[in-house]
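Need the bound structure for magnesium ion, inputs here:
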Amino acid sequence: MSVKILRGQLTSAEQTHTLGKRLGERLQAGDVVCLYGALGAGKTTLTQGIAAGLGVATWVNSPTFIFVTEHEGRVPLYHVDAYRLPVNDRDAARDIGLEELIGGAGVCVIEWAERVALLLPPERLDVRLEHTAEGRAATVEGFGERWVRLIEELSVSSGEQHTAQGG
Ligand SMILES: Nc1ncnc2c1ncn2[C@@H]1O[C@H](COP(=O)(O)OP(=O)(O)OP(=O)(O)O)[C@@H](O)[C@H]1O
Ligand SMILES: [Mg+2]
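Answer from helper R.:
Posting the output first, comments after.
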């Protein structure tokens, strides 16, 4: 399967939001976007940007002990926060309806996706956020033709903030 990686520095929360928005503008039903990163890395900020790009009008946050929130947009946004889910537990994932959300009628964005790694589809977008001295570093990795093309578009429209690598 083709893979493409894009790396960039996000020096403010606004830049994290903007990356999410550019992504959200390009997403379609059935897409799965997986977010990885330590506490406070910016996963929800990125999700809020994705929501803005999808035309979601409601507020997107990560309420404690709620695993999935659904938002109406150009296509529905399913926001999954796996922080409190047992790791790779198929029963727990089934309880929150993860299988139906992945590949469902909306876009599925999963925070702490490493906790459901075994349940993720092979064709997906992975976004890793890390704390750096300047703010955050983002690594965007696309698996499969659709995501490779999408990353190429992102890197073109993001100017000097992001440079494409790999292929
Ligand atoms: N690129 C950035 N530079 C500096 N601050 C940022 C950046 N991106 C996001 N932030 C800030 O980091 C804080 C945490 O962001 P956010 O809640 O999105 O993280 P999270 O990864 O969802 O955290 P959690 O693990 O608790 O769910 C917020 O105050 C947000 O504004
Ligand atoms: Mg969060």
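Comments: Residues 159-167 have pLDDT under 50 and may be disordered. The chain is about 30% helix and 30% strand.
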